[in-house]
Design goal:
Layout: H1 3-19, H2 26-35, H3 37-47, H4 57-66, H5 82-92, H6 99-106, H7 113-121, H8 140-157, H9 162-178, H10 200-211, E1 219-223, H11 233-237, H12 250-257, E2 262-266, H13 273-285
Parallel strand pairs: 1-2
Helix pairs in contact: 1-2, 1-4, 2-3, 2-4, 3-6, 5-6, 8-9, 8-10
Length: 293
């Protein structure tokens, strides 16, 4: 275990001992933050909070009682809500569990009363981000703010898709730190697969709320069933001026007005193959010829 994680587990075990519980639950790890301010400060930095994680008085009281208690001998099992969080991180990180990632995952548990108390004391944990004009446009703080907002909002509003939410947050982070701003390719491409009703479109809409904050109209949803005929691509790239009733393309016009916008291509399998080939060009090179202008 990493050092901060080791200390958190030891304090949590002390909290279990003073409370007379049988398993390690989120409240015990929250009491560990109260017992050792350095851990609360580290997690606060990771979460982008203005200071350490604020904790309810009950956590502080448990931490004070735990100070005079030795670390219990033997293994204390993880509770039913903590065990899958720990196991998932253990597998993903090759046998180690990063402290900050573990605590972040605990603070995403929706139905734990101790977690709800902490959320009430730390509104920023709800995914609220400061207005765009108050944030730096570049830098790790700005990137982490967006990534954490994505993760927190999706975790609260998309039910039963924890792994998908984590992968989306990881992809957003990877895209923000690796894709150069001047690149013509799309900054990030996400493919959501699954049966109807599992939240694919809703997830994309929530993602757009975070990533296009400050860009009114920066989200475009394309219902691809409207582009099922072989001429459908013209609706995306525009009609040549020689056509009667010529008009700009939906996609090219949006890209001009919102170069950092988010585009949802919904039900792409219903579109004509010529339209799908056009979209493959966008995914590969990030460019389209505007036929209208």
């Amino acid at each position: 275990m990493a050092e901060p994680m080791q200390r958190a587990v030891e304090w949590a075990k002390r909290a279990v001992a003073v409370l007379g519980d049988a398993t390690l639950e989120p409240r015990h790890f929250l009491a560990a933050l109260a017992a050792e301010p350095a851990l609360a400060e580290e997690l606060g930095r990771e979460l982008g909070l203005p200071g350490p994680v604020a904790l309810p008085p009950e956590m502080t009281a448990v931490a004070e009682r735990a100070r005079g208690t030795g670390v219990p001998e033997g293994r204390i099992p993880l509770g039913p809500s903590v065990k899958p969080v720990y196991a998932g991180l253990y597998t993903r990180h090759g046998g180690t569990v990063p402290f900050a990632r573990f605590m972040r995952a605990l603070l995403e548990l929706p139905d734990d009363p101790a977690v709800r108390q902490v959320r009430e004391l730390n509104p920023a944990l709800e995914g609220a981000a400061p207005p765009a004009e108050d944030r730096p446009s570049t830098g790790l703080d700005h990137i982490m703010g967006d990534v954490l907002a994505v993760q927190n909002i999706l975790s609260r509003k998309v039910v039963g898709q924890h792994n998908a939410v984590q992968q989306i947050a990881d992809a957003v982070f990877q895209a923000r730190i690796s894709a150069p701003a001047e690149s013509g390719s799309p900054r990030i491409v996400l493919l959501f697969l699954g049966p109807p009703g599992v939240g694919k479109t809703y997830t994309a809409q929530l993602l757009a709320e975070v990533l296009t904050r400050g860009d009114e109209g920066g989200f475009l949803r394309l219902d691809m069933s409207a582009f099922a005929d072989h001429e459908g691509f013209r609706g995306l790239v525009g009609f040549e001026p020689s056509y009667q009733g010529a008009r700009p393309g939906i996609l090219t016009e949006f890209a001009k007005e919102h170069p950092r916008g988010l585009i949802l291509v919904d039900e792409v399998e219903k579109s004509h193959p010529s339209v799908q080939n056009l979209l493959l060009q966008v995914l590969d090179y990030g460019t389209l010829e505007d036929k209208y202008s």
